[in-house]
Amino acid sequence: MKAVALTRYLPIDHPEALLDVELPRPLPQGHDLLVRVEAVSVNPVDTKVRSPKDKVEPRPRVLGWDAAGVVEAVGPDVTLFQPGDAVYYAGDITRQGSNSEYQLVDERIVGHKPASLDFAAAAALPLTAITAYEGLFARLGLDPDGADAGKSLLVIGGAGGVGSLVIQFAKLAGLTVIATAGRPHSADWCRQLGADLVLDRHQPLAAAMTLHGHPHVDYIFNAADTDGYWETMGELIRPQGRIVTIVENRGPLVQDQLKLKSATHVWEFMFTRPMYRTPDQIEQHRLLETVAGWVDSGRIRGTLSETWSPINAENLRQAHRLLESGSMVGKLVLQGW
Questions:
Q1: C-alpha triplet 141, 291, 184: angle, nearest 5°
Q2: Cβ atoms 91, 68 nearer than 8 A
Q3: Which InterPro entries does the UniProt record give (predicted)?
Q4: Do 222 and 318 fall into the same domain?
């Protein structure tokens, strides 16, 4: 089967950073689905995993953790899907990724593709949907059915793939949403998704929040920069409020402000359940089914902004380059082999 892989971890401008390869088609075991991949999306995790390091893989490593496709075959323990089902999923960072014609993925972290979306639009959703949903409803403890309506949420990095869904999910839950964005186009995108207020990320955030009548917020979802906003988040979070971050820190995080406010900081990493084979892995299947229902009922919109074809090393190198530039709004998808 065709695939795009690496054996060395190189700068993206190196011609061997990602390579077109031929690999054997895998066979499903246990709870595995064998999926014929129709479209894949690219996320910051792809560029971070691929980033230069002194390591050589003994066999080609396939990246990619966002896909939509069709179930080709199933393992003996599968009960949720059957061959021919259209699916979408993010997968497991400890296994081969989705940048291949066929991929094995555990059924418990897979959802049925939203019927109203084509494969490209569906591939833009899974990783960011899982991150946004788990961050809001599992880590921050918000109620998706509206029990926390009227409370305030600050979304740092509102125009990215995760932020785009955080805004929409939070509005479904009835929250007042303030988002940050870096450019007029990004700010317009956040407003279209439902943000009540959009602030320029280049301006001092705490002062801007106070100016607009939000000196404190109940919740913060930081999808951009943990270290860069750490002190500001401590200033803005309401006493006993909750903060979730998804970007790893580069240095120590001083806890003084959070201690004085009895505030909570929690991490969200959407690969935790599949990485550690947690007993509740199936929650990712359930939440992807919920999100598909929201999409098909028109309650949320997809976040696809660009589609390229075909899926090959040249296009994936260019996609990594675009993500590393920091200028991406929404999600970029590659479709077809």
A1: 85
A2: no
A3: ADH-like_N, ADH_Zn_typ-1, ER, GroES-like_sf, NAD(P)-bd_dom_sf, Quin_OxRdtase/zeta-crystal_CS, Zinc-ADH_QOR/CCCR
A4: no
Q: Are residues 234 and 311 in the same domain?
A: no
- How is residue 75 written in tokens? 């393992």
Task: Answer whether 247's CB lies under 8 Å from 230's CB.
Answer: no
Query: For residue 144, is the peptide bond before it cis, meaning its omega torsion is within 30 degrees of 0?
Result: no
Q: Is the pLDDT of residue 327 over 80?
A: no
Instruction: Give dist(CA 321, CA 336) in Å, integer.
Output: 20
Average pLDDT in the 165-192 region?
96
Per 3-state DSSP, what percentage of the chain is helix, strand, and coil (rounded to 5)? 30, 30, 40
202-224 confidence digits (pLDDT tens): 999 999 999 999 999 999 999 99
Clarify whether residues 261 and 277 are in a common domain: no
Specify whether the CB–CB gap between 63 and 46 falls below 8 A.
Answer: yes
Give me the CATH number covering residue 20: 3.90.180.10
pLDDT in tens, 255-311: 999 999 999 999 999 999 999 999 999 999 999 999 999 999 999 999 998 999 999
